[in-house]
Amino acid sequence: MKVFGSSGVRGVVNEELTPGFALRVAAAAGTVLGADRVAVARDTRHTGEMLVDAVSSGLASVGADVDRLGIVPTPGLQAYCEREGVPGVMVTASHNPPAYNGLKLIGGDGIELTRDRLDTVEERLDSDPERVDWHRVGTRRRVETARRHYREQLLAAVDREAIGSADLTVALDPGHGAGALTSPEFFRELGCSVLSVNAQPDGRFPGRDPEPVAETLGDLRRLVETSDADLGVAHDGDADRAIFVDETGSLVEGDAALAALAAAELDAGDVVVSAVNASQRLVDVAESVGADLHLTAIGSTNLITAIRSLQREGRHVPIAGEGNGGVMFPDYRVSRDGAYTAARFCELLVDRSASGIAAAHDGYHNVRRKVGYDDAEERAAMLSAVEAFATAADAELDTTDGYRLDYGDAWVLARPSGTEPVLRVYAEARERERAEDLAARMLDAIESA
Ligand code: MG
Q1: How far apart are CA 61 and CA 53, in angstroms?
Q2: Which of these is catalytic: 7, 57, 61, 94?
Q3: pLDDT lower than 70: segments of the chain
Q4: Do 26 and 96 belong to one domain?
Q5: DSSP string covering 214-245
Q6: Gap between the Cα atoms of 3 and 88, Å rounded
Q7: How far is the CA of 175 from the centre of ligand 1 (A)?
Q8: At which of 359, 394, 410 does a domain end?
Q9: Residues contacting 37, CB < 8 A, separation 6+
Q10: Would the pTM count as exceeding 0.90?
Q11: First to last CA, the chain
């Protein structure tokens, strides 16, 4: 059984994710991490407290003392782990609906565990953990300062003076998640005027679902449109992502925001890491500055694993991320951080408007198609047709996760869905016809099988 997906353990509480299971994962993680102290935090979900109790018991049973931080964004727990040099467990289901919860494991360096260490935890799950004698069972204590220390660390890491002098009004939509307790204060401390919506922490998420996408951000867009806000910022449930709304109330596509941040951050010879569905916007930015684009399988764990490996090879990776608002600035920390990402976007607003920034990376067209299959045989036939097409094409082929063909000005990707019996085809180009044509040619190849 694969317990850790591309972003930790996730499931519907009391169906896939029970307190008993959380306890077992925590006990296994406790023995792998080998620490005598572990920090535990959660987002605002209704089921969070129950799961924190279970996780704390699992950790204590293998001899770890537990620092309970309460409700803190995932990057806030990571800041705590980094400062204290202790590993951590985050109880969160990030952007998933309210019925879900999950666990993320953080190392004593503040970074999510890479794939190989998660595999070790999974192996331990099959056997009983080495529980300690009664007198060595861990104790627990409450830590009330994690959110304040996180804000202080953020303030020290961004260009406070530039942002303060820009006299910005920022509209925040933490979506009732953990960012509700940190982002409004942080942006005020940066010298911004702050407006907010959905800013009460509430694990039932009455105002909107935790995922910040066009359909859930109507309130924020109206707030920006009807006020003098320069920028709208929305987080997911654990505030490691930031999605932006420009000053006119239009959503800034996640891919455009990532491209704009990358354009400001990258120098020649640098590497930018993204997933195999990376936008042509990012391809064009990397090309224009002379940086390399390194693609991984989809999911933040894969990006983190690749960044750390590139860093060990001596490469500089100043920025990485996906088009869903999850951006990493590895010189700051190899982790996604919604508040930090939003502050870095504010730095770009010193001499430009948000709509102006987005416009520089606008005008790309995306095409998405899917083809269903009935059985494993049909799936295999389709995949070998894709392979034959890809090998013969006059384009750069990347087989990290499916088949991605880069034509320089455009790309097409075919990959099997992880959840449905379909092959998905994506294409992107500056002209709609070009994207449609690339997708159609890939679909023809698949259907001919
Ligand atoms: Mg998240």
Answers
A1: 12
A2: 94
A3: 1-2, 6-7
A4: yes
A5: GGG-HHHHHHHHTS--SEEEE--TTS---EEE
A6: 18
A7: 12
A8: 359
A9: 64, 65, 66, 67, 84, 86
A10: yes
A11: 32
